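New here. Invent one.

***
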Amino acid sequence: MKKILLILTVVFATALPSRAQVIPSFAFGIKGGMNLTSISKSGTFDASNQAGYLGGVWARFGALGFNFQPEAYITGKNVTVDGVKQKFTSVDVPLLFGGKIGAFGLGARFYTGPLVSFAINKDQNYGTAAGNIAHLNYKDQNYAWNVGAGIDIRSVSVDLRYEAGLSKQSYGTGSTKINLFNLSLAYKIF
């Protein structure tokens, strides 16, 4: 009898962590953080990195240890180009695909995916940028690719991400690709 109880205990103890990875799940939350922007340099082009910000919402759909995580947030990207400070503000929409390792509220995630960035500038406000997203107006958008990892501790997540610019953003009389690192803190609401 003791052997049967021991075997059942071992089976349930090992099945629960794997079950947590198999069951379909949904999570929604808010996130905020900072970024460090760098721009591609060419010729006599002189640029320096500066910190920016990000804030918005995320959702995560998962099953079998894999997940899909769409996000939407406002990002401020700051750089100094040839001694002139440039500020790029945008609504960013990453569509991330990845996996998760862990159970019982603790885990590590890794992910990658495309990002579409809708510019907000002097001629455009948040409502116009949101309208461009809803109507798939891609005239003022930029593309990037994200690669990153995160740690989940119950309802709190910390993410470190690299964003590689795929298209050029205009500034003044020029244009450049923007690359950045994001460090963000997220909170799962449900």
